[in-house]
């Protein structure tokens, strides 16, 4: 058992580390509340006369309501399709034991080794030729890139579901779709949460792929808009910092409500 | 195959089609392009392995590869040491340890691009301000030299990924049987001995996972590189991913860039497979 003194030592050490960890956030927030000049004269301290003006302008310049909406469409659309199609495929791949099935599963696992940069140039070229450099094309691409890991996770979880359940349902005259829909998919729910969170974290924050596919005025997601915004205001830190704070607020709110599931999901996703 | 199995095709078709269009076809197409002088629109000539020869003579690519390797080695070691340290800290049962976990993990929620921008402010303005207050010149020119740019990238990556790696180690630490630790205590083992002899072998599999993750994240790094240093000064902090991107989309040498991309793929695949193989082998020995 730990002694009381030892607990204090850990507690204080932890507190110091947390403060160090939060230091960049502290700097970002306090300086986002300062007028332009004060950032240069008083970078480290609290604002002397705080102002929300930076936020009002950054919010407008980021066209934030629209940008947030764009991010939501892409992320939710992609994640829903990834979940549905990956769970469906994992069910078939795990239950059917043929050479073909094994080979298809291995192909998905192997695809995880391919870095995005290795396929990005031809990918953009192909989708450009068939005129699919748009939201639909982007969501389709996310299914292709996201399926591997998601199938892998579902496949692992499927092993724990007894085949007897399927067999009983088949005898009752259920189709494979009905078995998946009413028996298997509900049991996979914990894995679905993990798959949803991991893919959300990735797609919400992704910059490179959307920058090549939907980088048009009015379609930009938060990271894309932030890149432009930052380029415009690179010498105007008061606006740039307010913009950064606005950009991360949705994520922090999400984290606040979902932290248990997120941390559990990350552990699950990594360990399996 | 019998009609009975038709559902198998129906269930797997959507993801197979997506994977084929998004990964496999571009990879094969890219392999072909890497042997041509493709400029993004037309292929004028088949140049054989000329592009690959040129890549190895390309100073920019070589320096990016070297920079990426150095960065990855340093970052992987630091991230794993810090991540394991944090995991050991927050698994001690003291008040607020859950809160610490939440905070250490938080940077992972925010994308690399935005994190890079936040740190750009920290390095250029806050460090400069501390530097001028203390009269330390090197703090004032952060991000404008190759050396400090390197460490800036390492710091940001550690700050971001240590919390992620911490979570992985925590899940292995929690699988350590309490009764083993109690038995060790009864036999008079010190905390240090308990760590090395009991916990450490149990978390060995965690290394496979953590090394694989940090390696692939560090080697493929792009967003933080773009938003923090953008490769500067004079491309000296440019990493491989950015070098490929710029060759393709800034210089329009698509075929040539694709040869780099194929080399990049081979490097990543070889490192990852070797590492998984070696760590798996070691686990069995332990």
From TrEMBL, chain B:
- What phylogenetic lineage does the species belong to? Bacteria, Bacillati, Bacillota, Bacilli, Lactobacillales
Q: Where in the cell is it found?
A: Cell membrane
Q: What membrane topology is annotated for this entry?
A: Multi-pass membrane protein
- Output the Gene Ontology cellular-component terms: plasma membrane
The residue ranges of the ABC transmembrane type-1 domain are 65-275
> Which keywords does the record carry?
Cell membrane, Membrane, Transmembrane, Transmembrane helix, Transport
Q: Which organism is this entry from?
A: Vagococcus elongatus
Q: What does the sequence similarity comment in the record state about its family?
A: Belongs to the binding-protein-dependent transport system permease family.
Name a single GO biological process: transmembrane transport
Q: What is the official name of this protein in its record?
A: ABC transporter permease
Segments traversing the membrane: 7-29, 71-90, 102-120, 126-143, 150-172, 200-219, 261-278
């Amino acid at each position: 058992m730990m002694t009381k003194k030892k607990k204090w030592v850990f507690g204080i050490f932890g507190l110091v580390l947390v403060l160090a960890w939060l230091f960049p956030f502290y700097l970002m927030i306090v300086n986002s509340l300062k007028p332009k000049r004060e950032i240069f004269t008083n970078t480290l301290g609290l604002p002397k006369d705080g102002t929300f003006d930076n936020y009002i302008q950054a919010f407008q310049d980021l066209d934030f309501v629209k940008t947030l909406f764009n991010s939501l469409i892409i992320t939710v659309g992609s994640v829903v399709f990834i979940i549905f199609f990956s769970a469906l495929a994992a069910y078939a791949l795990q239950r059917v034991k043929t050479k073909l099935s094994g080979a298809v599963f291995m192909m998905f696992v192997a695809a995880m080794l391919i870095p995005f940069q290795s396929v990005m140039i031809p990918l953009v070229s192909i989708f450009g030729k068939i005129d699919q450099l748009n939201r639909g094309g982007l969501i389709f691409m996310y299914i292709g890139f996201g399926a591997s890991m998601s199938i892998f996770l579902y496949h692992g979880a499927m092993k724990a579901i007894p085949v007897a359940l399927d067999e009983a349902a088949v005898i009752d005259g259920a189709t494979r779709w009905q078995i998946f829909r009413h028996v298997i998919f509900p049991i996979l729910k914990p894995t679905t949460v993990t798959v949803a969170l991991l893919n959300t974290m990735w797609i919400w924050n992704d910059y490179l792929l959307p920058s090549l596919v939907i980088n048009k005025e009015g379609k930009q997601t938060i990271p894309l808009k932030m890149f432009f915004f930052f380029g415009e205001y690179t010498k105007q830190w008061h606006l740039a910092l307010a913009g950064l704070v606005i950009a991360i607020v949705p994520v922090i709110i999400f984290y606040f409500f979902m932290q248990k599931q997120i941390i559990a999901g990350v552990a699950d996703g990594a360990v399996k | 195959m019998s009609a009975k199995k038709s559902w198998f095709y129906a269930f797997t078709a959507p993801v197979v089609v997506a994977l084929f269009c998004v990964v496999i076809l571009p990879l094969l197409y890219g392999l072909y392009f890497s042997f041509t002088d493709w400029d993004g629109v037309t292929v004028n000539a088949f140049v054989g392995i000329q592009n690959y020869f040129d890549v190895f003579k390309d100073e920019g690519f070589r320096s990016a590869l070297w920079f990426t390797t150095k960065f990855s080695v340093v970052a992987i070691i630091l991230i794993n040491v810090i991540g394991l340290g944090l995991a050991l800290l927050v698994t001690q049962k003291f008040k607020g340890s859950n809160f610490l976990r939440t905070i250490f993990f938080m940077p992972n929620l925010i994308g690399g691009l935005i994190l890079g921008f936040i740190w750009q402010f920290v390095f250029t303005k806050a460090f400069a301000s501390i530097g001028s207050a203390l009269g330390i010149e090197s703090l004032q020119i952060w991000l404008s030299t190759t050396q400090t740019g390197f460490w800036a990238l390492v710091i940001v990556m550690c700050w971001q990924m240590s919390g992620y790696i911490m979570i992985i180690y925590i899940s292995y630490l929690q699988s350590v049987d309490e009764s083993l630790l109690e038995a060790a205590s009864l036999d008079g083992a010190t905390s240090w001995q308990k760590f090395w002899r009991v916990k450490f072998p149990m978390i060995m599999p965690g290394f496979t996972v953590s090394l694989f993750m940090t390696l692939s994240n560090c080697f493929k790094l792009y967003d933080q590189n773009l938003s923090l240093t953008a490769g500067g000064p004079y491309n000296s902090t440019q990493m491989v991913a950015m070098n490929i991107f710029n060759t393709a989309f800034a210089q329009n040498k698509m075929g040539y860039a694709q040869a780099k991309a194929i080399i990049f793929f081979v490097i990543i695949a070889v490192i990852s497979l070797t590492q998984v193989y070696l760590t798996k082998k070691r686990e069995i020995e332990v």
